[in-house]
Amino acid sequence: MKEFELINRYFTGRGISRRDVDLGIGDDCALVNVPENCQLAITTDTLVEGVHFFADIPPRALGHRVIAVNLSDLAAMGAEPAWLSIGLTLPNIDAQWLEAFTDGMHEIAEYYNVQIIGGDTTQGPLTITVCAKGIVPNGKALTRSGARNGDWIYVTGPLGDAGLAIEARKQGWSIAPVHLKNANERFFYPSPRVAAGQVLRGVATSAIDISDGLLADLSHILKQSGVGAVIHADKVPTSAALNSLDNDELRLQLALAYGDDYELLFTVSDDNKNMLEAKLNQYGVEPVCIGQIVNNDGRLELLNNNQPWPLPEVGFEHFS
């Protein structure tokens, strides 16, 4: 199979067709229509074998994952996902692998009403780059720079499961099969909080998705908003899988600093706190308040049962 046969077999004519796409796969560029009074939100993410995923990850899970992590960025901006471009670098063409991989991609794209409109295929080490585009009403995008003194800090769901899945494999930890299965599912098939992001639009003061670890991603909000924060480690939500660890310090390290969770971290004023909780509950999201923004020049204070707790190492960063 050669390049254009690959494109025709696994991408052309597959997936949904949005009305706002005038020209999709098959030309030098795609042509789309952005609605009036809206802005285009664009994000790009690259996943590399051995860095972002294990070589033996199920291909369907990988196809899901590469789309999900990009949709999570759009969710953090309050954007509605619309279009995707895929850059796919393959060491060779394995028809069975490609079938499962593209099934995973098309399944999640269709679920969120997103059309794959173009991209590129090349030969080389397994690398997938996704450029996701979304739509957000003018002036309504969520950013990292709006947190203010007194705002409450929330997360949309449990943290640390992806870290548990990765480290259990790397370190050979003995974990009950049901907990390991659940942790692996969270890592393989993250659920971007797309609906929650749109609910937060116009209500939350700042937002970011948790990809590099709670504390690392919170630090971006603090820096760009010019504020500090107090976080209560004992209030950070964790799953039964993570709670099965008998090492409290390790459990907190995974929940606070590991990353790959793709939950949303956001801030909301005291006036909007109860309203926002009620709105998110309508979408099956139960946000958890884990701390508060304070005006102390960017300093982050971590407490555990109201006692000072040393900050764990910061989350993942390339070239560190």
From TrEMBL:
<dbReference type="Pfam" id="PF02769">
    <property type="entry name" value="AIRS_C"/>
</dbReference>
<dbReference type="GO" id="GO:0005524">
    <property type="term" value="F:ATP binding"/>
</dbReference>
<protein>
    <recommendedName>
        <fullName>Thiamine-monophosphate kinase</fullName>
        <ecNumber>2.7.4.16</ecNumber>
    </recommendedName>
</protein>
<feature type="binding site">
    <location>
        <position position="212"/>
    </location>
    <ligand>
        <name>Mg(2+) 5</name>
    </ligand>
</feature>
<feature type="binding site">
    <location>
        <position position="144"/>
    </location>
    <ligand>
        <name>ATP</name>
    </ligand>
</feature>
<feature type="binding site">
    <location>
        <position position="45"/>
    </location>
    <ligand>
        <name>Mg(2+) 2</name>
    </ligand>
</feature>
<feature type="binding site">
    <location>
        <position position="209"/>
    </location>
    <ligand>
        <name>Mg(2+) 3</name>
    </ligand>
</feature>
<feature type="binding site">
    <location>
        <position position="43"/>
    </location>
    <ligand>
        <name>Mg(2+) 4</name>
    </ligand>
</feature>
<comment type="pathway">
    <text>Cofactor biosynthesis; thiamine diphosphate biosynthesis; thiamine diphosphate from thiamine phosphate: step 1/1.</text>
</comment>
<feature type="binding site">
    <location>
        <position position="28"/>
    </location>
    <ligand>
        <name>Mg(2+) 3</name>
    </ligand>
</feature>
<feature type="binding site">
    <location>
        <position position="44"/>
    </location>
    <ligand>
        <name>Mg(2+) 1</name>
    </ligand>
</feature>
<keyword id="KW-0418">Kinase</keyword>
<dbReference type="InterPro" id="IPR016188">
    <property type="entry name" value="PurM-like_N"/>
</dbReference>
<feature type="binding site">
    <location>
        <position position="28"/>
    </location>
    <ligand>
        <name>Mg(2+) 4</name>
    </ligand>
</feature>
<keyword id="KW-0067">ATP-binding</keyword>
<feature type="binding site">
    <location>
        <position position="316"/>
    </location>
    <ligand>
        <name>substrate</name>
    </ligand>
</feature>
<feature type="domain" description="PurM-like N-terminal">
    <location>
        <begin position="26"/>
        <end position="136"/>
    </location>
</feature>
<feature type="binding site">
    <location>
        <begin position="119"/>
        <end position="120"/>
    </location>
    <ligand>
        <name>ATP</name>
    </ligand>
</feature>
<dbReference type="InterPro" id="IPR010918">
    <property type="entry name" value="PurM-like_C_dom"/>
</dbReference>
<feature type="binding site">
    <location>
        <position position="73"/>
    </location>
    <ligand>
        <name>Mg(2+) 4</name>
    </ligand>
</feature>
<dbReference type="InterPro" id="IPR036921">
    <property type="entry name" value="PurM-like_N_sf"/>
</dbReference>
<keyword id="KW-0547">Nucleotide-binding</keyword>
<dbReference type="GO" id="GO:0009030">
    <property type="term" value="F:thiamine-phosphate kinase activity"/>
</dbReference>
<feature type="binding site">
    <location>
        <position position="120"/>
    </location>
    <ligand>
        <name>Mg(2+) 1</name>
    </ligand>
</feature>
<keyword id="KW-0460">Magnesium</keyword>
<dbReference type="Pfam" id="PF00586">
    <property type="entry name" value="AIRS"/>
</dbReference>
<feature type="binding site">
    <location>
        <position position="260"/>
    </location>
    <ligand>
        <name>substrate</name>
    </ligand>
</feature>
<dbReference type="GO" id="GO:0009229">
    <property type="term" value="P:thiamine diphosphate biosynthetic process"/>
</dbReference>
<keyword id="KW-0479">Metal-binding</keyword>
<dbReference type="GO" id="GO:0009228">
    <property type="term" value="P:thiamine biosynthetic process"/>
</dbReference>
<keyword id="KW-0784">Thiamine biosynthesis</keyword>
<feature type="binding site">
    <location>
        <position position="52"/>
    </location>
    <ligand>
        <name>substrate</name>
    </ligand>
</feature>
<comment type="function">
    <text>Catalyzes the ATP-dependent phosphorylation of thiamine-monophosphate (TMP) to form thiamine-pyrophosphate (TPP), the active form of vitamin B1.</text>
</comment>
<feature type="binding site">
    <location>
        <position position="45"/>
    </location>
    <ligand>
        <name>Mg(2+) 1</name>
    </ligand>
</feature>
<feature type="binding site">
    <location>
        <position position="73"/>
    </location>
    <ligand>
        <name>Mg(2+) 2</name>
    </ligand>
</feature>
<feature type="binding site">
    <location>
        <position position="211"/>
    </location>
    <ligand>
        <name>ATP</name>
    </ligand>
</feature>
<comment type="similarity">
    <text>Belongs to the thiamine-monophosphate kinase family.</text>
</comment>
<feature type="binding site">
    <location>
        <position position="73"/>
    </location>
    <ligand>
        <name>Mg(2+) 3</name>
    </ligand>
</feature>
<dbReference type="InterPro" id="IPR036676">
    <property type="entry name" value="PurM-like_C_sf"/>
</dbReference>
<dbReference type="GO" id="GO:0000287">
    <property type="term" value="F:magnesium ion binding"/>
</dbReference>
<dbReference type="InterPro" id="IPR006283">
    <property type="entry name" value="ThiL-like"/>
</dbReference>
<keyword id="KW-0808">Transferase</keyword>
